[in-house]
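Support reply, case 0932

Customer input (verbatim):
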Amino acid sequence: MTALVLYRTATRLARPFLNRLIRRRTAAGKEDPDRVAERRGVAARPRPPGPVIWLHAASVGEAQSALSLIARLLATDARLSVLVTTGTVTSARLLATRLPPRSFHQFVPLDVPGWVDPFLDHWRPDLALWMESELWPNMLTGLRRRGVPAVLVNARMSAHSFAKWRRFPAVAASLLDCFDLCLAQSEAQAERLRKLGAKSVACLGNLKFSAAPLPAADAALAALAPAFRPRTVLLFASTHDGEERLAGALHRTLRPRHPSLLTVVVPRHPARADGIAAELASQGLRVKRRAHGEAVGNGDDVYLADTMGELGLFYRLAALAVIGGSFVPHGGHNPLEAAQLDCAVLYGPDMSNFQAVADELASRKAAIACADPAALEAAVDRLLRDEGARTALARAAKAVADAHRDVVDRIVERLAPQLDALSRRYGP
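Our regenerated output:
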């Protein structure tokens, strides 16, 4: 019995356990209780007429970078609809306000045969585009059995993931064989995919370069600007557990040297806000919370932006941005979001999720990589003292972001054979 057959059998038998897992996740706020049936493959709406492209993006970062591609795909054919799936509540909230007409969101079902098959049979996608690195065996083999062409877009294969897949070469080759084409973020990623058995691989650049700048509500920006503009704003963006403590300690060290300093903390998961606020207050810091509608005063130290979907607002108000998820073993978050909005960019030692982007920024002297909290303190202190250096770093980062904005054009051009075949299938 092959490994994939064993996996399919195991996931079928695991269905009762996964039902309990869904219930626990729903109780913990990690699933939308009104849409939990979608996680079991039950569609929430009918399939639209005409061609349907299914684009799967695992979470917020992939969904954000996919928006520019979705818009370009829809422009190729007025009959086309795009089904977008993700697996997290936060990504669903993001897409609810940012998807263009003729595109819509559903939660991806868990990779159980009895949930995957109804999903595929209902939506009958004409083309499947999978973002970055998720390889779900039941879903991919289901696409292959139905003859649905599939492309791995913005493909990412870290050194760690590559080492794990090398232990199961036959499985990796079989899953990658489900893709007609793999479009890698970098040549290093492309070479790893080839070694794992991908049959058609190209490197067209990182789609995250083509993402539009994060939005910000004009009214919110105008409301915050009077209190924020007189201060020097240091932003900790998309922080994880442990990084808020770092932000508080850094503020306590630097505030005596830089009296106008205001630290803004935007947690990746706002549900942690009560604990974050308590921890910062225990450091002797005066904290104001956005979710509570609290205004920033001159004596306040930290503004806790514990809301969803407002990171673009705070990038516009900040002079420096420290990328969260990089001072803990998480792999970092997208530094281009800060670079596009004129922030001086700093990050910690773990940017493995965005290594190619981080390496290019560092090689162009467009960001500062900090090996530890002491290096971060020294770098921030220097940039706060030297406005010219801070401005130069921000301009260099924006230049890197702008230089690769045409990645989405190259991807759509490479998808032309699949898009042409789809158009012919439905006639003129």
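We compared this against your earlier run and they match. Two observations from our side: The chain has two domains: 3-206+406-425, 218-403. The mean pLDDT is 94. Please reopen the case if you see a mismatch on your end.
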